[in-house]
Write a structure and sequence with these properties.
The protein is an alpha/beta fold and 439 residues long. It has helices spanning 21-30, 42-55, 74-88, 119-130, 155-167, 196-214, 228-240, 252-265, 291-295, 305-314, 319-333, 365-372, 383-392, 394-401, 407-419, 424-438; strands spanning 15-19, 34-36, 62-66, 92-95, 101-105, 111-115, 133-134, 340-341, 349-350, 355-356. The radius of gyration is 24 Å and the shape is flat.
Length: 439
Amino acid sequence: MKILEIILEDESKNIYAVGDSLAVGVMQTNGIKGNAEGGIPPKEVLNRINILAKTYNLKGAIVIVGTGVPNGPSQIDLVNNQIKALKDAGAIPVILGTGPGGNVPRKDGGFNKIDLTGLNEKLERICSTNQVKFTGPLIKIDPSMAKGDGVHMGPAGYKQVYNMVKAGQLGAVGTGNKEESEPLVKIEMPTSDRGPACADIQKVLKADGYGELLGPFGNGGVDGIIGKYTRNAIKTFQEKNKLERIDGNPSAETVGALNALLNSKYKDKLTKSTEKDVVLGQAPGEKWHGSIVGKQKSGTNFVDKNTIRSYLETKGFDKNQIAGWLANIAQECSFNFGVYTPNDVNGPGGGCFGFHDTFDGKVHNFTDMVKACGGENAWQSNWQGQLNYALSTPAGQQYKAQKFPTPAKASEWWVRNYERPGQIELRVAQRNNLATQFA
């Protein structure tokens, strides 16, 4: 397909498009300028973003991005880089979601089967981490995709995307379309001890008064993992309802009883779970057996302190707050955001602030950080996401709200209220000296 270079008709709105065939559709339908071509991978999309930034002044412009044809785990890193390149150019990125996938016609009369399962969830996490707008799944904007190839929208869909962007009608940052949540109408049989179906079971149990038994993990006990606490809640439910099997397992009989309860009391009151409701890592209350420890290795992602300083300035940090964080980052990871330790005081840990989990599930800061940064294949390269996660914690919000008189006071506050290491007085003194140097 020929590269498109189309002149914007509505110059006052300063809206561009860049990327794959979805961006081509936005450009053709709405007559806006940009740089797009069908069938290109995320790496080529990044190249076209750089070309777009050199061709036009993107400061303050909205850029609609088709992120590229999926090409494996590296897609997450590349989309993060696409967003960074646009932000560096002063643009406001809007990331296009995807359709469900299907058979896309080729010029020779054949078809290419494209599977897009789970890609919307990945894109949503990336957008949430980077604080940019996301359209949500495109099938919610253009339901006719289901009757087409499952990848491309019709003209009405591309027009709708443009109108939503122009009118500022997208959902909140990282959340996509306002209608994205689906009602929970049926619990599916779980195929393992972790996943959206497990989260749906927990939601119904929680709604019916079993919340305390589920434990203080995830979202009020809803973490998508059938562990010791959830099995105890299921067993109590089985006993109360006099089921044949009382063993704490989500059997077909148990799921059937939960569905009957759902339809009789909670129909249209609960939302269907997705992968984003499933916490990465261990089943709370049990010995760690999750995927992160088994797969993760320490990596190398050194970030210059001045780059970090510039990024924190965009977050509204003053010079003392910046120096305080730099001192702690220096001590925790030596500015290597890819560092990982399998057993850091009874649990894994890693990242810029030594984010930490415990094997008993009571502390899960590392798991939460990994999830916020796009998953186990993305967190080590997503240094901005690590900082954003730290800022999103209660301690991070309190830190940002305070006005510290000196860099040392800022560093000390973070050590005492977030890091809380052993030999705390020694650590405070070490980091106070560093904070003064970084001021």
